[in-house]
Amino acid sequence: MPEGHTIHRLAARHAELFAGDKLYATSPQGRFAEGAARLTGTVLEATEAYGKHLLHHHAGELTLHVHLGLYGRFTDGAGEPPEPVGQVRLRLTSDRHWLDLRGPTACELLTPPEVAALRGRLGPDPLRADADPERAYARIRRSATPLAALLLDQAVVAGTGLIFVTEALFRSGLPPTLPGRRLGRAGWDQLWADLVALMRTAVHRGRIDTVRDAHLPEAMGRDPRVDRHGGEVYVYRRPGAPCHVCGTAVSRGQLAGRNLYWCPACQAG
Ligand SMILES: [Zn+2]
Fold first, then answer.
1. pTM value?
2. Does residue 256 belong to any structural domain of this protein?
3. What is the mean pLDDT of the chain?
4. Is residue 236 within 8 Å of 260, Cβ to Cβ?
5. Do 157 and 203 fall into the same domain?
6. Cα 247 to averaged position of ligand 1 atoms, centre (Å)
7. Per-residue model confidence (pLDDT) at position 1
8. CATH code for position 178
9. Once rounded to an integer, what is the mean pLDDT over residues 93-113?
10. What is the model's pLDDT at position 257?
11. Which of 25, 62, 64, 106 is least enclosed by beta carbons within 10 angstroms?
12. What is the largest CA-CA distance in the chain?
C-alpha cells in the first residue's frame, strides 16, 4: 500500500493539473456514476492529503475523498483522454488534462462534517504543517501495545506505513516491540522529528531513502539495493542480511499479521 508521501505527491500533482479549473467527471466503469454527475461542472479549488487519504475540495462544499488501498492507482496525461481501458472508477477531465482512477478502496463525495469526521479519526500526519505530535504521544505513553503497532495505527499517526515505521525505529535504536508506555519524552521527540524528515525527503524524491550518508553503497563499497520499492534502507525486507551499521544479521518477525524487520544489536533497547 502506498505510504503517505505518495498521497501528498498526488495531491500536489492533481492541483498542478486541475486547480482553478472547471472539471468534467465520468465513471466509465459505472460504480461512481452518481458522484461523477455531481462533480461535473464544479471547479476544483484545492487538494490535500491527510495521511493516506486524498481530498479534492470543489466549489459548493463538495469534497472528493479517495483512499487507494492496496490496488488503487491514478494515471494522468495532457490533451484528449484515451479510450477507457479496464475498470476506470473515475475520470476527471479539463480543457487541458485528464486523470483516471482505478481500483481504489474509497472513492466518494463527502460533506464538510464528514470531512471533519474523517480528520478526527486520524492521528497527526508528519507531513502536514498543522500536525500536533502531542496527540500521538498522549496515546502512545498510555499504551502497552508494541511501538511498531502503534505507529502503524492510522488513528495514532497518519501516513506512516511499514517502511517508514520500520526504518524510523531502526534509526532511533528502538526495538519494534517496545511497549508504547516505555517510550520517554525525548525518545518520542526524536522519533517524530525523524519521521518528519524521512517523509519530507520521500515526498521530494518520490521514493523512500532512509540510509545516512556514511551507510550509502558508495561510502561502504557495497552493491545498491535492488527492490521494486527502490530506495536505500537499513532493515526493511533485509532479513538475514548484515546490518549496515554493526554487521549483525537483520531479524524478521510477525506483529499483527505484518512482517517486521529490526537489528537485534542496534535495537536492543
Ligand atoms: Zn545493527
1. 0.95
2. yes
3. 96
4. no
5. yes
6. 6
7. 83
8. 1.10.8.50
9. 97
10. 85
11. 106
12. 59
